[in-house]
Design goal:
The protein is of the alpha+beta class. 39% of the residues lie in helices and 17% in strands. Helix 1 crosses helix 2.
């Protein structure tokens, strides 16, 4: 397999999505998260597991639990709209996980785009939002195009090369299709490791990575308010170091939806007939593999690798939560 992306594990077991969500929700509740909020974030993490986006699925649970224990993330945020106009909105996350603010903002932006044709939102004063694709995909349900970008509050170090500005900031764009899988880009914009030999061989890649990071830093960070003093230490006790920018476009305002989806289907179908990357068994555009994995795993259970399982079992043991994994040993692959 090619490196640099999420893949299904080689060894592990299959676990129903419902059991994974139940475990994740119970773990969140041990740190003071309400049952409703815990179930909400757990479902989003499991969505990523279903799509084999493991880097932003339930593997992040120990990371979040640690921040709750240290008191740097608000376990019970009161998310609120702080600015709203005809086609724009600003949502405040009250120092909590960014999932709540980003999801609310994305839904509001989709509604506004359907009404006005285009709409945009920023979110502020929150922690990690997870996978940007969780929010761009919400536009697909209304035949819209969704774009999401995010940035963290990071201070440049004058002793480091400017390549340090090319961080793994998230960028996602989702475009509806008809019969083919939707086209969903969900990536970090740090494209290559900062090695000198790679810089000499592929200078354009590094320049573009810095350029993309700079644009995301402005839209998903600075414009979202991550540097406002009230969200920084010492004025804020929370690690509210991430913001986001969300934009949605209603397809029917630009061309008939049926025509658009037909053209997208032809484009995707043609690409899927091409030869795949070496080591891959099929050719897919962004989002195609995740679309198929989600359907397969909903039916057969999430593929949970041995390391992934151990990580969650350890978290469960530390908090007194019962792990469901033992009953699925018969599914081992």
């Amino acid at each position: 397999m090619l490196t640099g992306r999420n893949y299904p594990p080689i060894h592990g077991i299959r676990v129903p999505a419902e059991d994974m969500a139940r475990l994740a929700g119970e773990l969140f509740e041990t740190e003071g998260v309400t049952a409703e909020d815990a179930a909400f974030v757990a479902d989003l993490l499991v969505l990523n597991d279903l799509r084999c986006v493991y880097s932003h699925g339930t593997r992040t649970l120990p990371y979040y639990l640690e921040h709750f224990r240290h008191g740097s993330v608000n376990p019970r945020p009161r998310v609120r709209v702080v600015e709203e106009a005809g086609s724009t909105v600003v949502v405040d996350g009250d120092g909590g996980l960014g999932y709540y603010a980003a999801y609310r903002a994305a839904n509001m932006t989709v509604d506004k785009a359907v009404e006005h044709g285009v709409a945009a939102a920023t979110t502020r004063n929150h922690f990690h939002i997870g996978s940007a694709g969780l929010y761009s995909r919400l536009a697909l349900e209304r035949d819209c195009v969704g774009m999401v970008m995010s940035a963290h509050r990071v201070t440049p170090d004058p002793e480091e090369m400017i390549l340090g500005m090319a961080s793994a900031l998230p960028l996602s764009a989702a475009m509806p299709a008809g019969k083919e899988p939707p086209l969903v880009l969900d990536m970090g914009v740090h494209l290559l490791p900062g090695r000198e030999d790679l810089m000499e061989s592929f200078p354009r890649v590094f320049f573009k990575s810095i350029g993309l990071s700079a644009m995301l830093t402005v839209l998903g960070g600075i414009m979202a308010g991550v540097w406002r003093q009230e969200f920084c230490v010492p004025q804020s006790k929370w690690a509210s170091n991430q913001g986001s920018f969300i934009a949605v476009f209603d397809v029917k305002r630009f061309m008939p939806v049926v025509e658009f989806k037909g053209e997208i289907d032809r484009h995707i179908a043609a690409a899927r007939q091409m030869k795949p990357f070496p080591g891959m068994d099929r050719a897919e555009l962004p989002g195609g593999l995740e679309w198929q994995w989600e359907r397969e795993n909903r039916e057969s259970g999430i593929l949970v690798g041995d390391e992934h399982r151990q990580m969650l079992e350890t978290a469960a043991e530390e908090t007194g939560v019962e792990s469901p994994f033992g009953q699925y040993e018969d599914t081992r692959f």
